[in-house]
Amino acid sequence: MILPITAYGSPVLKQVAKTITAEYPNFKTLIANMYETMYNAHGVGLAAPQIGLPIRVFLVDAAPFADDDSLSEEEQEVLKSFKQTFVNAKIIEESGDEWVFNEGCLSIPNVREDVLRKPKIKIEFQDENFDTHIKEFDGLLARVIQHEYDHIEGVLFTDKLSTFKKRLIKNKLLNISKGKINIDYKMKFPDLKKRR
Fold first, then answer.
1. What is the rounded distance in angstroms from the CA atom of residue 87 to the CA atom of residue 21?
2. What stretches of 57-98 adopt beta strand conformation (E)?
């Protein structure tokens, strides 16, 4: 089932998400719905807060990035076959010299900005069967994981921008939170009346 994606301005996107256990209700269905929602919106990652759930779950399918000709064949192969569900993830280490990449987000449609991130990460997580893994990732894959991980920490990529950049996109962000955008997937907008 395709779920609506939570738009910028919704409080759930700013919450630190909660750890879950294998007893979480209808977990397999939730994961299937999240993948379907992500593919429908042409995303490479989706975190539970983006569908309104403050739980530590996100998924990544990096295959769309494999078409990037600027990457080596080896990198393209890694991206092409990478599909992973991350549950209760914790980044243990980020290392290397920060590099810039133009990021976007399904919760912040039509906004893309350059974001600095470290190129290597070490992360502990459980998969959809609640088996624990510790893995290292680098390059574009590390970046996608960091972006989705930020969602479960209540951080958006726009939080990483300079004050000047934030000012430049302020009206765009306001329009997103008010639902004044054209987008080809289902979205759920914040109830701004409640917050007055």
1. 9
2. 57-61, 83-95
Contact 57, 153 (CB under 8 A): no
Of 75, 103, 113, 148, which residue is the catalytic one?
A: 148
Tell me how crowded residue 58 is: count the other CB atoms within 10 A of its CB: 28
Fold of 5-195: Peptide Deformylase (3.90.45)
Q: Along the 196 residues of the chain, how does pLDDT read in single tens digits?
A: 999 999 999 999 999 999 999 999 999 999 999 999 999 999 999 999 999 999 999 999 998 888 878 788 888 888 888 999 999 999 999 999 999 999 999 999 999 999 999 999 999 999 999 999 999 999 999 999 999 999 999 999 999 999 999 999 999 999 999 999 999 999 999 976 554 4
Residues 157 and 113 sit within 8 Å (Cβ to Cβ): yes
Sign of CA dihedral 58, 61, 64, 66: positive
- The amino acid that residue 67 corresponds to is D
Q: Establish whether 93 is a catalytic residue.
A: no
Q: What is the pTM of this model?
A: 0.94
Q: Where are the domains of the chain?
A: 5-195
